[in-house]
């Protein structure tokens, strides 16, 4: 009698156990899927519905640590993504839309300090990229349009004061550039034209005294 009760208890679990890597009659992925490395170690696992990824997917380093986590939504078209170092600390986070980077992506060093952020639209840089010193202070802000540098570029000293100001036009330096000494005085100033230095460039000492003049049109 005890053996019969035990058998009846196990039947529901056997009935609801899921097979993996299944496709339906028209070849669409359904249910739980997982893939492995050639070594046999788990590479990723997640769930599909009508060939579209659903919910959480987990990706692993071959050594077994969690490498990335994606949460799919909008019928599998978008995925909120977190990427990890092997020690479990966050390495990067952002959004994929149709498998392309979109919106703001943030990147972190091994000490969990933000070192870069980028703005994307359909896989291309659009907006600002911000780069930080290893300690977390802002180093550079650069403008992008359709994956090409376009607009202002500003760099900063560790104390937050401006180190350099420049401008890009369609990927090439164009317009006035100013570079500063750490005390705030101008180090040099001049103009770029089509990515080349043009006209008069002036250089100054830390005390603000003009030191050198170069005419790039001569």
Give your account of this protein's structure:
- By secondary structure, the protein is mainly beta.
- The chain has a domain of 86 residues: Histone H3 K4-specific methyltransferase SET7/9 N-terminal domain, CATH 2.20.110.
- It is 7% helix and 61% strand.
- The protein is built from one helix and 18 strands.
- It has an 18-stranded antiparallel sheet that branches.
Concise synopsis of the structure shown:
With 218 residues, this protein is mostly beta strands. It has one helix at residues 2-16, and strands at residues 22-23, 29-36, 42-49, 52-60, 66-73, 78-84, 90-97, 100-108, 114-121, 124-132, 138-145, 148-156, 162-169, 172-173, 175-180, 186-193, 196-204, 210-215.
Draw up the topology in text.
Blueprint: H1 2-16, E1 22-23, E2 29-36, E3 42-49, E4 52-60, E5 66-73, E6 78-84, E7 90-97, E8 100-108, E9 114-121, E10 124-132, E11 138-145, E12 148-156, E13 162-169, E14 172-173, E15 175-180, E16 186-193, E17 196-204, E18 210-215
Strand content: over 45%
Highest-level CATH class of the domain at 133-218: Mainly Beta
What structural category characterises the helix and strand content? mainly beta
CATH topology of the domain at 133-218: Histone H3 K4-specific methyltransferase SET7/9 N-terminal domain
Can you tell me the residue ranges where pLDDT is under 50 for at least 5 consecutive residues? 1-17
Query: Largest sheet, if any?
Result: 18 strands, antiparallel
Number of strands: 18
- Helix segment count? 1
Task: Name its key features.
7% helix; disordered N terminus; 18 strands; 218 residues; 18-stranded antiparallel β-sheet
